[in-house]
Amino acid sequence: MRSFSLIDLVSLVEALRWTVALVVLALGFGAPLALGLAMGRISRFAGLRWIMAACIQIVQSVPLLGLLFFFYFGMPMFLGIQVPAILAVTVAYTLYTAAFLGEIWRGGLEAVKQAQWEAGACLGLSAWQQFRHIIGPQALRLSLPPTVGFLVQLIKGTSLASIIGFVELARAGQVVSAATFQPLLTYALVAAIYFALCLPLTLWSRSLEARLDGSR
Amino acid sequence: MNFLPLWRYQNQLIDGAIVTLELTVISAVCGLLIGVAGAVALNGRITPLRWLVRGYIELLRNTPSLIQLFIVFFVLPNFGLKLPAFEAASVALSLYFGAYSVEIIRAGLDSIPRNQVEAGQCLGLSGWQVFRHIVLPPALRNVYPAVTSQFVLLLLGTSLASQVATDELFHVAGFIESRTYRSFEVYAVICVVYFAMAMSFKALFAIIGAAAFRWPRRR
Lengths: 216, 219
Hints:
heterodimer; A: mainly alpha; B: MetI-like fold
């Protein structure tokens, strides 16, 4: 047992890099997938709409912890290969992000009135041009506040990666807490770091939403 | 792939699912009570109390549930408050759910236009009657979707309680895995069980919602 020192603080901040890396990976792979899901959800083809809705529904109805364990412990066993932790974790968070962002963005797309598509068609724009120049920008503006809100959920959600042994902020906190026997100080610090990360985003999301309200 | 070895653990699975449901319902009820109290305080006139509630909401909503659980389970004993795993998880999840509930309930109350309350007062209704007949029914309908989807997230979130060794469903999964070494099958089955529970609640809430909020919608 040793006392809490500067080294412990450094190890927490260093582990923060992995929390950020997880968020970036989840968004990098999840966002394109989410866009595909959202487009599929408003597609003309009932079959496609139904499949996309089912995918979203399944991921949203399973605990994030379940996804993580399934891809970290379950899948490698099934495939009979070793999977690096970062890959399993990335897959789980990508699916999680895609399902929630997909549903948020679908809401944004559907909130733009049908007549706007028709107006675009009347101007002779192709379906892609209608999406790119008319619907997309408006939907983006509408769905930005909940998207930022989800980002907060995602940052908090990365703490679950600690449970399968991935060393990010929460895991580093557990390690430091065990080494120093100072759970109060350590977890308060960890919570404070998460708080400092999430609060600005929450406030930003709220101000975006307020601005949106006034402009309508 | 072989699911048969899991069959003999069905009783443990059912017990785990029951603990998960208990944890969810207890946390939801306590959380909603916190939510009502918090919303009343936020609309009240005592400024320090409003700040306190705001601080509570922001603190709980901007830190991970897992860390909150660790603080309740590992840190509170330092202050002489040693809670068993199930109780610690209930407290942590109630506080977490409560923070979201305050915002939802406050938004529901705020969604009722001021002039409807005034119209009620003009009709000579008492304060309680205005609340009971004018504010409450539409406010309930407005908060219903948010509360129910938050409830389902809470159900899924109770899986975190396994990390402080509460005997809930996810903890049972770890136990079965350690006995059978069938990680794929165990976690596939566990995900299906959570999925089934979540979908059942969603269906139940949809039925209740359709039955309870049938009166004409405001335009």
